[in-house]
Amino acid sequence: MPAPGHAPTPPAPADRSTLASLSLVLGILGLCAWILSPCGFPISIVGLILDILSVRSKRRDVAIAGIVLAALTPLAAVVNAAFGAYLGLTGDLFSGLQSLTGSSAKASRP
Fold it and tell me: 0.85 exceeded by the pTM?
């Protein structure tokens, strides 16, 4: 109870250092999972949100590193999807597999 005539002291703001570390880990996981867009994209979005919330923590450098990693993951996923779409449209998607297995389209025709 505060002394008469004095306002109560507001509680100290919570430190978000743990949040910054968690967001960095999510950024790294998202970057590792970028090749699987359905997995890496949501992880990076959650990491990006946590990074933005933890920028004002004591571990600001960790939060900024997490922002960079979490921002790279959706970019890499979009590039991966565009490259896959290009290979699918040009018909070159499975040509690499055919050369690895030694089969060819001409050999399968009667």
Answer: no
